[in-house]
Specification:
GO molecular function, one term (chain C): heme binding
Number of domains of chain C: 1
Structural class of chain C: mainly alpha
CATH class of chain C: Mainly Alpha
Largest interface: A-C, 32 and 37 residues
Domain Cytochrome c assembly protein (chain C): 8-184
Membrane topology (chain C): Multi-pass membrane protein
Oligomer: heterotrimer
Order of helices and strands of chain C: HHHHHHHH
Number of strands of chain C: 0
Number of strands of chain A: 0
Helix content of chain C: over 70%
Keywords (chain C): Cell inner membrane, Cell membrane, Cytochrome c-type biogenesis, Membrane, Transmembrane, Transmembrane helix, Transport
Number of helices of chain C: 8
Shape of chain A: rod-shaped
Structural class of chain A: mainly alpha
Radius of gyration of chain A: 20 Å
Radius of gyration of chain C: 21 Å
Number of helices of chain A: 1
Largest sheet of chain C: none
Largest sheet of chain A: none
Transmembrane segments (chain C): 20-43, 55-82, 94-114, 126-145, 157-176, 208-229
Strand content of chain A: under 5%
Shape of chain C: globular
CATH topology of chain C: Four Helix Bundle (Hemerythrin (Met), subunit A)
Chains: A mainly alpha, B mainly alpha, C mainly alpha
Chain lengths: 49, 218, 250
């Protein structure tokens, strides 16, 4: 499935791995913060109204 | 203005002031470097100018948080802000006092430490010149950083993080002057750029620092 | 006539982004997956660089976003300063971590790429060095936001830092250029076989360019989506804090 990367297999894969891991981490952290903020706001608003 | 300057100088010279601290730190850096890189005189001669610049920069950093922190804590900063003296002038004077108590002594001490690091003879003039031109910029930029972090408790580390990237151009040109001077190359290019940075920074940043202080005092 | 400033109203901003965000996020996902798969599986190897050329699909878009994220922060800070729109300040805050991560990706992929190509993970090449400095600027900016409690003071101070930092970042870029030429003229020899930034765009043939553009579009959309998402988070946090404060008053 993975194309033949020749002698640079480790190089290319580690670059992709590191970048994608960082991107996923960033997206995950953003989503989690968003969810937390939404829940906190809902809680406060419910108490208010 | 003069009174403020004298007051700041007096405070710095008193015990607990930053005066001796910066110098001692500078000395220690110069002494520790040979332990770190080995005692070969050739190697030391090559890196002496850069090491001294770096040491001076870090020594400057040490006393930055004192520029405003004490005045902030005891409220004299509020007094200064309401005094007839414009806050821009206060920032300028504070930076000047900082330079007189750290930058200037560091510049004067540098040749002695150059001796310790076997700086080549050609380097002394340019090392002192570049430090004399560059350290005012370090003080003024640091004053801006101190103004930014004045309201933050234990802001010392944050101050370093903010100020160090801002020091990059000054360090590059300053060390370049010292290195080229040491190697006997032409120095006019980086020297002009270093002087340019210093002058621009001295002209503009006190206003920005005053703006930042006003935000913090709001 | 609706002006763009209407969206400075948090409520309107939330309503608009409610609809826009899913579209942008979907576009980002599609473009990134398509671009990266295309780039990784379906492009040939470069005759000189072998398969390492595939790193370009991550490196160049990340670097592009890394710089432009700072521009976004700069513009947002200016808008905050001039027009005092809170959403603008929050956009600047939201963009910073994204920019920092992109800078990190550009640095890491660059180092991994440099190892086989230049024979070293790191050279103090002007471009590499400026990116490292840019990363430090991002860290300082984020740290200042975190350190200040009062939101308006934080917005003001970080805006000033962003403006001053921009000037110094540009200054550093030139200083670093100068410094490296002064140090060793031969740096360009090292880079002759290397592909970075603008050198590439001229050299890259169409086989590589099309998936690269798809990847760039994907990264831009991803950046947009993340900034919108994070700005919404910040707006909600503000609203929560405001409601709690009001409750205490009553």
């Amino acid at each position: 499935m993975i194309p033949d990367l020749g002698k640079y297999t480790a190089t290319v894969l580690s670059a992709y791995g590191a970048s994608i891991a960082l991107l996923i981490l960033l997206v995950w952290a953003s989503l989690r913060a968003s969810k937390k903020a939404r829940q906190a706001l809902e809680k406060v608003e419910r108490k208010d109204g | 203005m003069k009174a403020l300057l004298l007051r700041d100088l007096k405070l710095a010279f008193r015990s607990g002031g930053g005066f001796g601290l910066g110098l001692a730190f500078f000395l220690i850096v110069a002494v520790l470097v040979p332990f770190g890189v080995g005692p070969e005189n050739d190697l030391l001669a090559k890196i002496a100018a850069g090491v001294l610049w770096l040491g001076a920069l870090l020594a400057c950093l040490l006393s930055l948080d004192r520029i405003f922190a004490l005045d902030w804590e005891d409220g004299s900063l509020d007094l200064l802000a309401t005094s007839p003296l414009p806050l821009e002038a206060v920032c300028g004077v504070k930076a000047l006092a900082h330079w007189l108590t750290t930058g200037l002594p560091l510049t004067l001490a540098a040749p002695v430490l150059g001796l310790l690091l076997s700086l080549p003879e050609t380097g002394y003039v340019w090392l002192v010149t570049s430090l004399a031109l560059g350290t005012p910029a370090l003080s003024v930029i640091g004053c801006f950083g101190a103004a930014l972090t004045v309201g933050i408790k234990r802001g010392g580390l944050l101050l370093s993080l903010l100020v160090l990237p801002l020091y990059v151009p000054t360090l590059i040109f300053g060390a370049e002057v010292a290195r080229r001077g040491t190697e006997g190359l032409a120095v006019s290019g980086p020297l002009a750029l270093l002087a340019g940075i210093s002058l621009a920074v001295i002209a503009v940043l006190p206003f920005v620092s005053a703006l930042v202080l006003r935000i913090n005092l709001r | 006539m609706a002006s763009i400033w209407e969206y400075a109203n948090p409520v309107k901003f939330m309503r608009l982004t409610d609809r826009v965000l899913p579209v942008v996020a979907l576009g980002a996902a599609v473009c990134m997956v398509a671009g990266l798969i295309w780039g990784f599986f379906l492009t040939p190897d470069d005759f000189r660089q072998g398969s390492t050329v595939k790193i370009i699909y991550l490196h160049v878009p990340a670097a592009l976003i890394a710089i432009n994220a700072w521009f976004v922060m700069l513009v947002a800070s200016l808008v905050w300063f001039i027009r005092r729109h809170h959403v603008s300040a929050l956009v600047a805050k939201a963009a910073a971590p994204v920019g920092a991560v992109m800078t990190l990706i550009a640095l890491i992929t660059g180092a991994i790429w440099g190892e086989p190509m230049w024979g070293t993970w790191w050279v103090w090449d002007p471009r590499l060095t400026s990116f490292l400095i840019l990363f430090l600027f991002y860290l300082g900016y984020i740290a200042l936001w975190e350190a200040i409690e009062s939101p308006d003071t934080a917005a003001d101070l970080t805006a000033v830092l962003c403006l001053v930092g921009s000037v110094f970042a540009v200054l550093s870029r030139y200083a670093v250029n100068f410094w490296n030429q002064g140090l060793h003229q031969g740096a360009s020899v090292l880079r002759a076989g290397a592909v970075t930034g603008s050198d590439t765009e001229e050299k890259v043939s169409n086989v590589f360019a099309v998936p690269l553009f798809v990847c760039i579009a994907g990264f831009v959309l991803l950046f947009l989506a993340l900034v919108l998402l994070r700005t919404r988070t910040e707006i909600r946090k503000r609203r929560t804090a405001a409601l709690i404060a009001r409750e205490r008053l009553v």
